[in-house]
Amino acid sequence: MMGLLGGVAATFAAGCGSDPIAPAPGAPTAPSGVSIPEIKEGEDVIAYVIRVKEKYDHEFYKAVIGAANDFKEGDEALGIAAADEPSRENARKLLANTKIGDLVDRPMLEDAVYDLVLKATDATALDGVRAWKMSELKSFLLEKTEDEIKAVMVGLPSDIIGMIVKLMSNDELIKVGQTVFNPLPGSNIGAKGYMGARIQPNSPTDDTNDILWQVMNGFAFAVGDVVLGNNPVSSEVASVHAIEEVLKDVLVTFKLEDTLPHCCLAHIDVQAEVEKQFPLSTALWFQSLGSTVDANATFDVTVEKMLNHAATRSGKYGLYFETGQGADATNGHGAGFDMVVHEARKYGFARALKKKVAEAQKAAGQPEAPWVHLNDVAGFIGPEVFRTKQQLVRCCLEDIVMGKLHGLPIGLDICSTLHMSVDLDDLDWCIDEIMPANPAYLMGLPTKNDPMLSYLTTAFQDHVRIREKHGFKVDDKMWAFFQELGVIDAMGKPTQYFGNVKYVYAKYVKAKDPADMRSVDEIMNAQETLDALDAVKARGVFIAEGHGANPWDLNPTLDKYIRDLVADGKKSILAELDPAFVATIPSAVKIWTGAKDRDDYILHPPTGEQLKDEAVRELETLRDTHAGKYDVQIMISEGLNAFSISDPGHVDKFLPALRAELEKAGYKVAPEHIVCTAGRVRAGYHAGEVLYGKLADTQSRRAIVHIIGERPGSEHRAFSVYMTNPKVEVWAQAGKVDHDITSVFAGLADTTYKDKDPVASAKQVVAQLKNL
Q: Which residues lie in coiled coils (predicted)?
């Protein structure tokens, strides 16, 4: 997933919440939106807009193009989804009749990201297709060879690529996906017939042993050929460095450092600082990307910053990006155009940065072979973007084609939050529907349940099933390694060690220390090995050992456990804070947001971001009482899981520890605790504006420390702490405080406290607050 405050925090904050209840059978999918009841023969988008509005209306133009998209809730929230199927079909006909040049001349939005995208588009190739209608481009992409398509696609701006997929059926998208391939240099990753894996060894506590054992687990199933990519809980330099080192150590030990890169998905600035302080510790650099200047600001990213980072990537491994349909809109930067075109612009941003990496290599006297790829995190945000398995398939197919037409190796995170109408078995169906389009890679975890991010994605054994059912291959160099390792034989069939994580660990120990005279069997059965594996499991990190009836089946005991956790997550998402628990919070000041009920909160995230007028008045009274005496206000919201707040050993133990450590660090902590019903992360920002925005000392810093329930689904029922500490003059500007200046400490629970002590974790939170 997206790196913390380079992605995960912002994505969580924006996408907290979803749809545990499927729409009623027969209910209209889009009861309101863009109505296009009739069009004239041969009419295009521009002519239609002028006829209906009696002049060119750019907002209506964007809405008509948005109405051509397959229905998704995210477009509906922006008011640009088609009102009904006839309107959608008419929008598509209008778009099909429109010339490429006319669309290029009317960009959805012009900003620095768009300018870079256009600059990276081949002007000569674009001139060659400006007179084509979109219908002609569609026919060309479906009928021509890969070489012919590649000669044209370099001249297609991202907006055009985003629009052309609207005109294609799923089968037509698959056809293009089967035609165009952009393998990474010197590898088969992204080549036809190959389908790789990013091992995603996430830990709720950034424990390097958790990370190590999950990599061993992937290798045990002959999985992992694209990148070893961990999502960190903490973005502290020391923590990120420790993760980079353990991943690098695995690759160096197995002599794979020139075959497979490693990456810690922290913000790119943090990775750069790690490399500066600890040279050669990093390999591939990661960053989440947005589609507009404002969307990228949420990730603390600018065009200039990314170009500067790309200019330093002259070695073998360049840049890795993650994106996702709907992230821009849910972060408040929809700009009146649809999610598909937003997503395409991110790929255009990535294409431009890939060119910059090639320039950096050339300037350094190296071959121009930029190792740059991306993956779409489809489904991670929640049902405010889209809800169903059919929509998930559509989104993935659109993104595969858009990525390929941008010349990029594109992978997927075919995933679901626990509040979408998608379950574990649905994900298998989605994978099978998507695989014919041949994405470059998928995620890979021990089970479908991520132990840190609490969402559902692809497991190692899903890759085994995909290889068997769809005939996809692993990158040749890694396949040879897996054969040498001994988990598959010369024919590629599972050996007796297939799925045996202790065996792979023993081989790692032997490779790391050739002087170790113990046999592989002795290391496998050594008490220290068994204790290390048990400790990983005790921290709530799943390890898949062995398999069921087929090599691709999870062992039955673990399968049942994961399904029980998913069921608990579905229940947790609907839970509310028990009044009896709230009564135990010292000096609680109760406030609430505009969400009408739990369903409204889940389905419409903005309702949980703004406080009701009555709640604002409560805070104004508190502000007047404080008279500027305090610089920290603690706030508690149930977020997506009330149990993560009220479970014994959670906030009841953490809250006093946090207060004590804040005071010990010299902060003046308000004696009251704000308790917000149906609050999201941005509700904390609103509270800060009310409490601090009118203080006279505009240069002083004031903090909101917001304890909020995380997405459910892991055994931890974890909560996070969001910390925001700007100057009063920033709080005074409504809407100015946002995720880009907020830090988060995630994954807190009685089972995940540092050293099993809430005080130790509180110290970490306070240290992170100080760094703000």
A: none
